[in-house]
Protein: Non-homologous end-joining DNA ligase
Amino acid sequence: MGKSPAVELEVEDRVVRISNPDRVYFPARGETKLDLANYYLSVGDGIVRALRERPCMLHRFPEGVTGEKVHQKRLPHGAPPWVRTVRVHFPRYNRHADELCVTHIADVIWAVQMSTVEFHPWNSRAADTEKPDEWRIDLDPGPTCPFDRVRRVALVVEEVLAELGAVGFPKTSGSKGLHVYVRIKPDYGFQDVRKAALAFAHEVERRAPDDVETTWWRKDRDPSLVFVDYNQNTRDRTIASAYSVRGVAEATVSTPIRWDEIPDVDPREFTIATVPKRYSELGDLHAGIDDAVWSIEPLLEWAARDELEVPDEQ
Structure:
């Protein structure tokens, strides 16, 4: 079968060419490359807010999600002049990369043209890539952990955040876990943010010891518990953004949710087939995140009190 003719999408004030638009990317329901582009257009403000001015690693699937997966830090060749980049440094290798820096929905659609399915941004921005402005709470269930346990832990997270005076913005991971994002003042480096995240994780574990653990080495964890993964705040560690599609046959989406949805939420229900309608009805549930900035100083005080340390970044 020959390739389908390219189509041109008008994306606000720009035009993005989508080649081979009929290639099936997600076999469960048969969604195509063009369906993926149209999905991202339908959540345009939300995905741009999630990625805006952050270094962004791309997970590309040139043959669809059943084919090879390419983890790409550097911007793919052939970008139009309006696509911005931000340079980041990797101390371990003493190298740098110019990564995608989204400022416009056309940047996202161009990345889809380059076969990008998943968007994995840093938790810092181009203005100072060494100072995170986003604290990420990743509730990562073990292989035999029931999702009810993840829900229970999320409500403990909500409780602790409320006591701290921090506003958390929850979302599904698009897989088996839940994420909560907190916008923070960019006053500290990655090590301090990790230390703050570890102090928070310990408090959640203290309150829910039958559901949570914070053991770093996977081989030492109880597979039935939720790991509060504080290391997702490590420099250059990224997870799928809000509204990012995941590279699975069902085209699930990492979807913002309300706290009151958590007791009944089923992440499998959020896909590129269902999220556009939800978005049109509810808007972006993370729309207020940039107005809810919090300082991690109380968590650093907890870390000092408990004499917590995190490993050096290598």
The first strand starts at residue 7 and ends at 11. The longest helix spans residues 147-164.
